[in-house]
Amino acid sequence: MIDLRLLRENPDLVRASQRARRESESAVDELLAADEERRASLRRFESLRAEQKQLSGRIPKATGDEKATLLTRTKELAAEVKAAESAATEAEQRLRRAHLVVSNVVEEGAPAGGEDDYVVLREVGERSQIDKPRDHQELGEGIGAIDVERGAKVSGSRFYYLTGPGALLQLGLLQLAIQQAGDAGFTPVIPPVLVKPEAMEGTGFLGAHASEVYRLEADDLYLVGTSEVPLAAYHSGEILDLDEPRRYAGWSSCFRREAGSYGKDVRGILRVHQFDKVEMFVFCRPEEAHDEHLRLLAWEEEMLAKVDVPYRVIDVAAGDLGSSAVRKYDCEAWLPSQGRYRELTSTSNCTTFQARRLNIRYRNADGKPQIAATLNGTLATTRWIVAILEHHQQPDGSVRVPKALQPFLGGRDVLEPITRQG
RNA sequence: GGAGGCUUCGCCUAGUUCGGUCUAUGGCGCCGCACUGCUAAUGCGGUUGGGGUCUAAAGCCCCUCCCGGGUUCGAAUCCCGGAGCCUCCGCCA
Q1: In whole angstroms, what is the distance from residue A58 CA to residue A329 CA?
Q2: Which of A56, A152, A405, A412 maximizes the CB count within 10 A of its CB?
Q3: Are A397 and A139 in contact (CB under 8 A)?
Q4: CA separation for the pair A277, A405 (Å, rounded)
Q5: What are phi and psi of A381, to 5 degrees?
Q6: CA end-to-end span of chain A, whole Å?
């Protein structure tokens, strides 16, 4: 949800943002109208209610004709108040619906346009030059790290087992991420991965992403696609002390239906229904959000340096931001088997958009509650294993282990292919 | 899954029998002042929160006794639905 005060004062800014996103501008008009209607209906309700309370209060002491008159009048008023209240409630709902449709106002400097209109900010590291590179599935199977076949047998396509060095790689990666985040002042969190509809709705995942989400019918709970959901909802309805940003690092499994991705990335574990992730999540004051966003990106790059894979940083275009972000930076690793870059991290500045839905506030200098800002960024995921295997592969099918991960693999610096025992 | 109890202004708590005087009691904490030649004790005063109105302050208005409905001129209080917490029983990795 965007800031209505901003909209009233500067509707053109919001319209320009909608254009950059290639989204509807008429939604802005509807939101303005709904806002106006809500304010008027609320004012009417409040004045009627005040009169009703005043007259009702006089009834116990009144007698005779005065009492009869008061009773007649208050009875009328009761009906009017009721009507005004339901009108106000309706106006509230209309406003909310209109509010949900309008995306966050993109940050100045964000590229306009769609998916392909990103801007490459920088490339880091040498692209791997490998003759006839093996892909991560072949490598992973070779060293006994990934078992896609049995994953499919037990759970279906896009499921997998991580075994031996694969399991250790993942645990090491996540542990390394949690350690780094902890050192940077993040509070490590292991959140619930099943959440109520409110949490899902509040973070905006029941809108355009609804078909991506697993739902447990019998219990009316959802499996989260990212720990962003339980982390954002963690402080819902609260007023926080945000003299310093509050930083959390969530470690969780993530579940995605991948409903719209038939035929895409079917090989290996690049795109799967279940993976693990360490996610950074920050609550801060809106004026600090821009700087914090750049810090999140820096932390992601710090983590990428530890696994020593080449990557580039892109500034995602407005039309590809998702409704809640005002700016998004992705780090994409070079995959030699595909000859292209693939997303490993993504960091979004959501400003007050999520916090307004979840009613997360802080007190400003005057002690007045204000809507907080939220940001998120990836610190490590199962997908990182793909990039690590492919980039650090050697001609014999073995894989070098980045120094930072070696302690988690029993000190090994190379993972050798094993002879398959079936 | 079954039975019962509970949920009040930061925390604890009175109030719910019998609807209006609840504009919610008291304690703790917190803030201010006074006093003692020190931040301790004591005394006095203040303190629910949120939204709106307003240039601002003051003031005023609405909402707020877990949430949502209902009854009523009027609901913390009565009725219905829901959530959470606790206890007991059953079942079970």
Answers
A1: 63
A2: A405
A3: yes
A4: 16
A5: -145, 170
A6: 54
Q: How far is CA A211 from CA A208, A228, A379, in A?
A: 8, 18, 26
The count of residues in chain A is 422
**A57: pLDDT confidence band, cut at 50, 70 and 90?**
confident
ipTM surpasses cut 0.90 = no
- Tracing tokens 């050798």 back to the chain, one arrives at A416
Residue A105: per-residue pLDDT: 93
pTM of the predicted model over 0.80: yes
SS3 A384: helix
Give A341's strand partners.
Answer: A334
- A53 phi, psi to nearest 5 deg: -65, -40
Structure tokens, A135: 């892909």
CB A166 within 8 A of CB A385: yes
Could you tell me if A113 and A22 are in contact, meaning their C-beta atoms sit under 8 angstroms apart?
A: yes
CB proximity A47–strand B (7 Å threshold): yes
- Protein footprint on strand B: which nucleotides are under 7 Å from a CB? 20, 49-52, 61-63, 69, 72-74
Cα–Cα distance for residue pair A57/A239, rounded to 1 Å: 35
> From the alpha carbon of A79, which nucleotide's C1' atom is closest?
B73
Residue by residue, DSSP assigns A108-132 as TTPPPSSGGG-EEEEEESPPP--SS
Q: Which of A313, A302, A96 is nearest to A186 (CA)?
A: A302
Give the pLDDT confidence of A126-174 residue by residue, as tens digits.
Answer: 888 888 899 999 999 999 999 999 999 999 999 999 999 999 999 999 9
For the stretch A110-125, what's the b/e string if a residue is b when 16 or more beta carbons lie within 10 angstroms of its beta carbon? bbebeeebbeeeeeee
Nucleic strand B near CB of residue A56 (< 7 Å): yes
Q: Is A52 (CB) below 7 Å from strand B? A: yes
Give SS3 for A41. helix
Tokens 């447990």, residue located? A216
- Torsion-angle region of A159 (φ positive above 0: left; ψ -120 to 50: alpha; else: beta): beta
> Which 3-state string (H, E, C) describes A194-260?
EECHHHHHHCCCCCCCHHHCEEEHHHCEEECCCCHHHHHHHCCCCEECCCCCEEEEEEEEEECCCCC
Could you give the dihedral angle defined by the CA atoms of residues A89, A95, A101 and A103, in that order, rounded to the nearest 10 degrees? Answer: -130
* Contact, A403 CB vs strand B, < 7 Å: no
A247 compared with A70, residue with greater pLDDT: A247
